[in-house]
Automatic annotation (TrEMBL):
<feature type="transmembrane region" description="Helical">
    <location>
        <begin position="123"/>
        <end position="143"/>
    </location>
</feature>
<feature type="transmembrane region" description="Helical">
    <location>
        <begin position="40"/>
        <end position="64"/>
    </location>
</feature>
<feature type="transmembrane region" description="Helical">
    <location>
        <begin position="76"/>
        <end position="93"/>
    </location>
</feature>
<feature type="transmembrane region" description="Helical">
    <location>
        <begin position="12"/>
        <end position="28"/>
    </location>
</feature>
<keyword id="KW-0472">Membrane</keyword>
<feature type="transmembrane region" description="Helical">
    <location>
        <begin position="99"/>
        <end position="116"/>
    </location>
</feature>
<keyword id="KW-0812">Transmembrane</keyword>
<protein>
    <submittedName>
        <fullName>Uncharacterized protein</fullName>
    </submittedName>
</protein>
<keyword id="KW-1133">Transmembrane helix</keyword>
Amino acid sequence: MLLNYLKSSSASVLSSVFTFLVLAILFSPDFGLDDVPSEFYRYTFTATLFGYIGGLIAIWILWLYQDKEVFTKDKIAIFAAGGLLIGIGLELLTGFIGLPYFLISALVGALMFLVMQKLNNKLLGWSIVAVHFGLLFIYPQVIDFFTFI
């Protein structure tokens, strides 16, 4: 159960951050590749906060629907609605500065949580968790090191 929560929340966070960055780079005139190193950590930290809180709610929802099938219409609708609610909350917190990037990213993250329920490989699950926490805790040290040089 712990690995299920960690791998799903980590994959959710990583997918939502990368979705946001790709959308912002491609479609935002105010955001470019030069902004990625400085903004990546801030987005990862914020998404981790929302992702792990949302992950607790998601695990509770999955516990309520204890049937073996992961991809039912009900679950997909519930997770999509949860992603949209988180996206709307992020848009409200930022004054709609990232519209529709936060909305799409939160939806992708919520659905990724559901997709990760099908992953049964423990090594891959722990690898996803390690990459996420590596980016969260090691990435700032690397950026500080290279800006110092």
